[in-house]
Amino acid sequence: MGNIHAFQLNRFLLAYIEKNRSCQLLFEDSAATAPVYDLDIFKDSISGNARLLRYGAIEKNTRAEIKLPLANAGNTVFIWMAIGFAVVILLLLSYRLTSEIKNKS
Q1: Are 48 and 86 in contact (CB under 8 A)?
Q2: Is the CB of residue 73 less than 8 Å from the CB of residue 47?
Q3: Which of these, 17, 13, 24, lies nearest to 50 by C-alpha position?
Q4: Secondary structure in 3-state letters for the chain
Q5: How far is CA 21 from CA 1, 10, 83, 100, 102, in A?
Q6: CA of residue 71 relative to chain centroid, distance
């Protein structure tokens, strides 16, 4: 009978939070639950007047929008020119190699 070993990678979030400024954690998971913070290992490095972290109900953020930068037309033309140049070089090298092989045999 064999053994079964299960594991899960630890995921951590470390953030510098400035005094008197609000912050938000944004994520989308309807089955998410409130986080449990394991800060016991930092007791010696956290001052005694640290504020408690509060959280509210988890709800979908409809205001936040991920904005992806549009590709610059000049950059895409340059990339396609570079790809074309590389293909031409590879074709020339392949042609020279095959012609040398034909000459030797």
Answers
A1: no
A2: no
A3: 17
A4: CCCCCCCCCCCCCCCCCCCCCCCCCCCCCCCCCCCCCCCHHHCCCCCCCCCCCCCCCCCCCCCCCCCCCCCCHHHHHHHHHHHHHHHHHHHHHHHHHHHHHHHHC
A5: 57, 28, 48, 71, 74
A6: 19
> Which contacts qualify for 58-65: CB closer than 8 Å, 24 or more apart?
58/29, 58/32, 58/33, 58/34, 60/28, 60/30, 61/24, 61/26, 61/28, 64/26
Q: What would the pLDDT profile of 19-65 be if each residue is shown by its tens digit?
A: 888 877 776 677 777 777 776 677 677 666 666 667 777 777 777 67
In angstroms, rounded to a whole number, what is the distance separating the alpha carbons of residues 12 and 14?
6
50 is written with which tokens? 């640290």
Amino acid at 54: R
